[in-house]
Amino acid sequence: MCAEGAHPHTPPARAYDPGSVAIPRSQVPLPPDATARRTVELVLGGPDEGNPFTDVELTAELSGPDGRRSVIGGFYDGSGVYRIRFLPDVAGEWSFHTNSNASSLSGIEGVVRVSPAGPDDHGIVHVDRTYHFAHADGTRYLPVGTTAYAWTHQTEDLQQQTLATLAASPFNKVRMCVFPKSYVFNTNDPPRFPFEGSLDKGWDFTHFNPAYFQALEGRIADLDAIGVQADLILFHPYDRWGFSTMDPASDDRYVRYLARRLSAYPSVWWSLANEYDLFQSKSVDDWERIARVVGENDPVGHLTSIHNCREFYNHSRPWITHCSIQRVDVYRTAENTDQWRERWGKPVVVDECGYEGDIDQGWGNISGEELTRRAWEGAVRGGYVAHGETYLNDREELWWSKGGELVGDSPARLGFLRQIIAEAPRQCIDPVPGDWDVPWGGDGDDYRLAYFGFGRPRFRNIHAPAGRRYVVDLIDTWAMTVHRLPGEYEGTFRVELPGRPYMAVRLVSREP
């Protein structure tokens, strides 16, 4: 049911053109090097009269080598060019048949021969073991996320610097806005806009600017090449151009177009909104409708979330694959991770726990030590805490929004945490019974990890599960060192500690 004031999507007319075609059907090129788990694209020539963005509907019936069938939505890319993209998950012959109200685009058939996936093509990320993530081929995915909201809306030189920084960092996910952003330390106009028109003369929300979305796709491909997932924020409230207050029909048209363009990219996540509860023009019914539009136009089923400012969304909604959390308390956030897991039964990603930096805003001036502590707190409680950086400089190029360079202390420590988690038996950590004052995580009785945070004990009496012998590692999470204690331990035993903060103790079972 549409929200108040919404206008339902009106399908294009049944007939659009007289049958003229720029490229004969028999000459539609087939991709010669298609591989499984990689984007496959069909390029068709068609009409450019009128407004093909709203007047032409194009789909393809797709049949895989195992007999599965699906319908893929195509899109107009300007200058008489139409594209249909899909993401084959297995090798073999994939046949297609197009349907369109434009006769020149309808009835086109062909077979794409898809080769086996390459060794680095792991496929999309999905939820695994209820609270964690894995790629389509089963490879574990451990999110170490960061935020650079408006990095694709900066100069080319700054974008290239951002990519180089990410390539040398431990981060494998970046939260980023599709629309440009207007906020403190981010007041510049982007080099291009998503719609035809201008702020002064008004926007035509029925005419997309293909160059805008082509540039976005290029950056998604660049991120994928360095192993970074693009967590795309579809809407945000920090806007002076009117993109956050479009009418429902325009919202739906934009989301449909974006999903059809990008759902065949293996490294895309959908985040419906950043701080959804700050939108005065959208209700929960609107977000539910937008979620349906995403789902209807994403045949692959990418991870999908929505992000809060003050009030949590109902993360039990079936379209939400994981909980994208912003802190709701100035200090305590990561400490709630295990409770949120139990509440919603889904992975918890604390995408914003506060940023390492030195700006005047309270959300952007915690220390690297504190950000690292919050990440470890969330990890031993079975979740994933992301990074952000807001160190002020004369250029006002703060990583959290514009990208550029990282200068903080936490990124290397978050990479070390990722390494520690990767060494767990199943490369993930769940909460395990522990002590009232120290959180414990692990994998049953085989692997256990205690984190002392800002506590500074000189020793700890460990009560290990009975019937097992363990080797014990002393981990300095700030110095990024692991020291194995001599011998093996069982039952209750004492571990000497250095009396400084940010220490962890790891028990690894020696039982077969």
How would you characterize this protein structure?
This protein is α/β, with parallel strands linked by helices and 512 residues long. It has 3 domains: 25-114, Immunoglobulin-like (Sandwich), CATH 2.60.40; 125-422, Alpha-Beta Barrel (TIM Barrel), CATH 3.20.20; 432-509, Immunoglobulin-like, CATH 2.60.40.3950. It contains 9 helices and 29 strands. The chain has helices spanning 52-55, 156-167, 210-225, 248-262, 284-296, 337-344, 368-380, 399-402, 410-422; strands spanning 40-45, 58-63, 69-73, 75-76, 81-86, 92-100, 109-114, 125-128, 132-135, 145-147, 173-177, 195-198, 202-208, 229-235, 268-273, 304-305, 323-326, 348-352, 356-357, 384-385, 389-390, 430-431, 440-443, 447-451, 459-463, 470-476, 481-484, 492-496, 503-509. It has a 6-stranded antiparallel sheet. Strands 10-11-14-15-16 form a 5-stranded parallel sheet. The protein has a 4-stranded antiparallel sheet with strand order 3-2-6-7, with no helix packed on it. Helix 6 links the parallel strand 17 (323-326) and strand 18. It is globular. The protein starts with 39 loop residues before the first strand and ends with a strand.
